[in-house]
Amino acid sequence: MTPANPTAVDIEHAGSFGIGRWRVNRLGYGAMQLAGDNVFGPPRDRDEAVRVLRAAIDSGINHIDTAQFYGPGVVNQLIREALYPYPADLAIVSKVAARRDNVGAVLPYDEPDQLRAGIEENLATLGVARLAAVNLRLMDGSSPGKRFDDQLAALISARDEGLIDGIGLSNVSRGHLMRAVAQTEIVCVQNLFNLPDQRSLDVLQECRLRGIAFVPFCPLGWPRDARNAILTSPVLAGIGNRLGTTASQIALAWLLDLAPNILLIPGTRTRLHLAENIHAAGVVLDDTARAELFERFPP
Predict the structure, then answer these.
(1) Which residues contact 287 (CB under 8 A, 6 or more apart)?
(2) Which residue, 5, 8, 10, is CA-closest to 249?
(3) 5-26: buried (b, 16+ CB within 10 Å) or exposed (e) per residue?
(4) What number of other Cβ atoms are within 10 A of residue 237's Cβ?
(5) What is the torsion angle, in degrees rounded to the nearest 10, for the CA atoms of residue 193, residue 199, residue 202 and residue 205?
(6) How far apart are CA 262 and CA 271, in angstroms?
(7) What domains are there in the chain, each with its CATH number?
């Protein structure tokens, strides 16, 4: 049911949206899984990782999500090996505020000077002078306040100095978003959001009102139980059988259908799964499918 060699036709079917000045296709690629297990260390198959990245670009994807702390450094280095010199229209978006220790634990790295250092590390490993956007990823679940303002100011300085084109937010509440847009332009928000977990619906709605790209991470569910709820759902299987597609493609198509400002960044380590994800951009949900999904996965 999935074409072995997806083309730009699949990607273009879903349309495009802006991340600031960058106009990107709504189906992008999240590079996190290219690192080793638990997003730490080298990939299982380095050659396949390089081939996946090149296949993504060949298929028409022009938005890649990454981070220096994936690996750490591993994923950015793979992107550079596979794609440098980069296509002129490729928007590379990264995130800061975390680091890995020598056993792979994820630790905060979110003081203003550390955020600046994180941006510079991304630039160095990717081999670029400027990034399309960088997300401030909140690690501590704190309420918006002066600390958040100071963190945001570090990204504003980096943007004003030309290191990044746009500022994004990740793992934030609507309160964070409203406080941020009162101070500067926000070009994207990256939050956990999928069929079983729609807790960020208010953030998505606010982004849509303001023309801000909303980028759901873990679009096929997280943790494992949530992912299994999608992949083993009889409702999704039934819709997939009727429409000639898979449960995971239905879940991705649902996101694309939900709001025009949603940009997808599903990740994978293999070209086979990449093709399956890309094909989701061409899946058209009908009213019956929408009603069935709403009943099974209410907001």
Answers:
(1) none
(2) 10
(3) ebeeebbebbebbbbbebebbb
(4) 14
(5) 30
(6) 23
(7) 8-296 (3.20.20.100)
Compute the distance between CA of residue 247 and CA of residue 280 in angstroms, rounded to an integer: 10
Instruction: Answer yes or no: are the C-beta atoms of 174 and 205 closer than 8 Å.
Output: no
Measure the N-to-C terminal CA separation of the chain; round to a whole number of Å: 29
Q: Are the CB atoms for 134 and 158 separated by under 8 Å?
A: yes
pLDDT per residue as tens digits for the range 113-143: 999 999 999 999 999 999 999 999 998 888 8
Q: Half-sphere exposure of 267 toward its Cβ, with a 13 Å CA cutoff?
A: 20
- 70 in catalytic set: yes
Contacts of 49 (CB under 8 A, 6+ apart): 34, 43, 78, 82, 269
Q: Which residues of 121-158 are buried (b: 16+ CB within 10 A; e: fewer)?
A: bbbebbebeebbbbbbbbeeeeebeeebeebbebbbeb
Bridging pattern class, strands 91-96 and 63-65: parallel
User: pLDDT value at position 223?
Assistant: 77
As a whole number of angstroms, the distance between CA 93 and CA 134 comes to 6
- The string of pLDDT tens digits covering residues 22-44 is 999 999 999 999 999 999 999 99
- Amino acid symbol at 285: L
Exactly one of 70, 84, 86, 109 is catalytic; name it.
70
Residue pair 57/79 in contact by the 8 Å Cβ criterion: no
**What Cα–Cα distance (Å) separates residue 179 from each residue in 150, 203, 264?**
12, 13, 25
